[in-house]
Sequence to fold (792 residues):
Amino acid sequence: MEKVPKDEIQARIDNFQSVLRDENLDGSFILQNVDIFYFSGTIQVSVLFIPREGPPVLMVKKSYQRARDESPLDQVVQIRSEREILSVLREHGHSDLGLLGLEMDVLPTNHYFRYQENFPKSRWLDISQQIRRLRMIKSPYEVEQIKKAALILDKGFSEIKEVIHEGITELEVDGHLALIARREGHMGILRMRGWNQEMTYAHVLSGENGSTVTFCDTATGGTGNTPAMAQGAGFRRIGKNEPIGIDYGVGINGYHGDQFRTFVIGELSADLEKAHDCSKEIHCLLAKEGKAGVTCSHLYSLAEEEARRDGYSDFFMGHGEGKVKYIGHGLGLEIDEYPVISRYFPEKLREGMVIALEPKFIFPGAGVVGLEDDYLVISSGLERLTVTDQVVMKID
Amino acid sequence: MEKVPKDEIQARIDNFQSVLRDENLDGSFILQNVDIFYFSGTIQVSVLFIPREGPPVLMVKKSYQRARDESPLDQVVQIRSEREILSVLREHGHSDLGLLGLEMDVLPTNHYFRYQENFPKSRWLDISQQIRRLRMIKSPYEVEQIKKAALILDKGFSEIKEVIHEGITELEVDGHLALIARREGHMGILRMRGWNQEMTYAHVLSGENGSTVTFCDTATGGTGNTPAMAQGAGFRRIGKNEPIGIDYGVGINGYHGDQFRTFVIGELSADLEKAHDCSKEIHCLLAKEGKAGVTCSHLYSLAEEEARRDGYSDFFMGHGEGKVKYIGHGLGLEIDEYPVISRYFPEKLREGMVIALEPKFIFPGAGVVGLEDDYLVISSGLERLTVTDQVVMKID
Fold:
């Protein structure tokens, strides 16, 4: 099993400690699974303390043996309860802790109260935005993981062409995508940071289901087959000559690939083909114009302008209530990372960002067409990490 | 698509309002997906307010149309932002809100701060324990959903026997279980309430992988294939004459079925067969002794005593660091519901509780054997909801 290299972890800790000093913090607790993994290389039940200077302390409840084996950190300590944290930190030279960071965007309120109680002399600062901004810039190691995920997505899209036939349900197609993903090494979950956000392995959206609006902060939603998980595939049987939109995710060593392709049994109408061409044009335009230094809001405007020129404003990234205000998002250990490629995200692209661009067109009653691919931001442009051809995938 | 019946929702609201009055609360916000679904029948992005008396107000951000369609509640209102909540509640006659409930076990700290800010005159009480205790008692409708899930698990176990062969990887078996589950209507996610707890569709644990300890609060863990999701199936190839433990979950209309069976290609050793028999005996014993009025801690003791008599104390529900202190758990919209069948849960079983009992034996280096089944607590005993034979599933 591949472990996170020691120099990766060290570089992340160094960057974070520089943030801690900038913010005048004495240190920060890291408590959420994904952040713990980012800074320690393990998701075993732990409390990670990163001081403003010096080595972090990973305090592990379960499994201590596994955390020791997986994490390249030097200070890995076994604890039985969170009440031991204060004394463990003292033993490691961390007393007089004043201002401390917590991931308040995800940390449950009761946990916050407990930390207040256990550290009565400390004050607390939400450090989540700073962590999300650090994680926005990917190392070559991280980009490699996303590339591996992208290869599996490509394999999955090519295999699923052989599975889809008239009359098959969306759910069965979804199940085959899950089988392929797991067989090839998908870690078995797609992670989102947003409160109440959840994701199945794939969205399979055929015909009018592609225009179903739901709770997800995405242009497409799907019916699902129950209001209890109102998204993705349902029992609808796929027909001929209708768009089949497939959003597919895979996680390798924690890192997600995220891709969307439009399939059809037979042919799409000329209208839908034209809208798909527009999605392709937007990809070409953004891959040319996007590079380090360009603002996310500018990229969004370019895409929106292209959609308007082709007459698709009303259907671009959703319709009616379902319209979302972005055309892409950062991608890494979570699917909903920074940056957001949106009018409201004025920040500049920076080298090492990985973004998924997903210009889609949603036509009420007819469905969804479009393309989603993952790109690495480099100084001169955007380098595509996903490898599947940018075409409508036709099934005879 | 099946919606939650109106009388179900009404009964849940009635019960909760009785709790609100007992606790002297003016009302409670319900903000977490699963709880919103429980009390409203939808998981669309919403804020649900349940006053101590009178009809609840469901304030929906996205999708309003879908929430209206899915929820049998009478007062469903569209909002654009959480800042509108105060005025919407005023319009519905809810001003002067003093003590209010929040689900502080799951609600992120920043959300709590936002509610404090938006309702400067209110005080707040954690209402999560009360909600979890209400949800512990299932209605006949809810039991029906779990039974549907159990039928799919049975089908999956029977189909997977035809798939497993010497040399197949755990991950490929896991993928087939996902395919079957989705094809049959699994909602595509297994939900856990615990902080940082996550679950793949299934755990496929062959040979020594069945004794791998990891972060999950379960007797078994598995290697997974990455420290980033250190659980369940990995690339290990399944061999002959070794135990293959499969923990399988399916969600139907939000409700989970949860089952474990031991498979083998060929034969288990006499030792492992004997341990499996002990798991079966514990099931028989608990099904006989367990009924409304019996404490959870007593059930646990009965199981532990039976394991001790057979000489398996060191391997019962884990070994070493991996040992867990329960043999079962409540089951419903989440997999980790109340009650916990544990020495430390002194409460009595009540009619309508649904529990998964999972006496397992974990032998370091050799693997896991055991049985898990779901039971409804009735006045005279435990009624098994899962239908698969309680035997080792042998593959030629």
